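Teaching assistant here, posting this on the class forum so everyone can see the example we discussed in section. The complex has two components, and the goal was to see what a joint structure prediction looks like when all of them are supplied at once.
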Amino acid sequence: MLISLPEACTADRVAALWRTTLPAVARLGGGDTLTLDAEAVAACDGAGEALIVELYRRSARQGFAIACRDGRGVVARTLGLFAVERFAEDPAAANPARNTSTAVQLGQAAVHIWQDACGQMAFLGEATVAAFTLLLRPGRLRLRDTLLHFERAGIDALPITLLIGFLLGLILAFMSATSMRQFGVEVYVADLIAIGLFRELGALITAIILAGRSGSAFAAEIGTMKVNEEVDALETFGLPPVVFLALPRVIAATLVMPLLTVFAIVAGLLGGALVVTSLGVPATTYWQHVVKATTLGNILLGLFKAAVFGLLVGLVGCSHGLQTGRTADAVGRAATAAVVGSLILITVFDGLFAVLFYVLGI
Amino acid sequence: MRMTDAVITVAGVDAGYEHPVVRGISFEVFAGEVFVILGGSGCGKSTLLKHMIGLNPPLAGEIRLMGDRLFGGSQEERSRALRRFGVTYQSGALFGSMTLLENVCLPLEAFTDLPREARHLVAEMKLELVGLKAYAGYFPADISGGMKKRAAIARAMALDPRILFLDEPSAGLDPVTSAELDRLILRLRDTQGVTVVMVTHELASIFAVADRCIMLDKQTQRLIASGAPAELRAHAELPAVRAFFNREG
């Protein structure tokens, strides 16, 4: 078999040569001779060198001989630079990260989940201790940072909260009104919207917005600080990252959530009003029903849930931020995990509250 | 080594983003030489390098890489110029989610039709050139700073560029690792025939690898000296050059 290397033995030409000749080379065995003609080669790049190494690697593996015409010394130079025996292995074998069986991957995933859970618990413990310490020495709280995060998570989130709240009220009213109208009780849509928003949906939808908007930002900000070794710098200064970075964000999220929830509820009630009044119910009647259906208990219950959801979003976001790895990729994963974790916990706690309030008869 | 063919021509360049940091820079870099751009912090070394690698257009003047312009010409001309060089950044700038092998494979995937097996072998050979073949499967987070710099050089060399730009390659490295990197740069120049343009202010590296250098000055905003490093140290007339080479305050 004869392989003639082209004058320009570069990636463009080598790509075609690799595909056309190497399948035939694979059929050679002991006793065969491959003639490698490199006389014409004027320029040889990394791809050309790789082809030469590959042929000699296969010769060593399959046992065929190579007769080389190498007047310009291209092959000799390549083999001088790259000892063929150094490339005997399959390149993929040098990649331990990719050569794991399903069982090993499952095990690694289980260990990762366990470590993640331990990390969350450790963070929760640290945050609790830090919070109690703050109660004794409130001056340690970085008030400026807290206010900054309050502004970012709250005031900056107001437009989207109002929009989503308004649309939620509108959709809720429209969907319920179409059914209720059949029985001529569309005026009770106001009661449904008021109870639904105050007790359940106002806090829930605001928490989802906060998790997507601010929870991910908390994780990404702290994660990037970890990648840049800013978190290490804090620790070496003797400033606990939980107090310095996490608590201002957690406190801001906890305080801002009830306020945002109020705005979302008001926007939702306005959305509902738009639908109900367009169905012919007077606005006064709508608002009278809203006021009648809204009890102090419902308001406080909704705001309590909102504060708890805010606390969860803050804790989960900061916790994932502080557990970020050292790469840009890890920051992205931390932000995703913060949102997913927050949503799961919000749903779980919402369910728990529903059961608890039912048992307590609230 | 032939010192006759200019592979890079910088003519009357004002370097900066909105306002010039250095003005009227002109020089040529010849094939096969190690050329160093040096100067104190903030003098515009890295800004000039960013113009030379096509990240930002210079405020004035023209830069040609082997005759092709990166700015002011056609898109084909720019693409041709871009294919002719590799760059390593101060931090290495390796992609953290990829192994070293995958990092080096990336430009091969993007710009060649080589089959996967060939790409892997080329990447392995580039890693062998920088002494990191055994670490092909490692992620950047798992290797030392010096190894990251070497891996970044392997990635920059993946497409066999004629010119290699290195931004502060010795930054943050200990003297021994830094000297290893210097030897690697010279080996690449000798075995691969690559022209090296390096931005640094590490005196030891400058004397170890540079054939010629230019010095930029922050105060005058000008190129104030050019020549071989030993010449500059011996015959520097300007106090700023003397101070730099003799490490005087």
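For the discussion questions: Residues 103-360 of chain A form one domain. The first strand of chain A starts at residue 2 and ends at 4. Think about how each of these relates to the inputs above.
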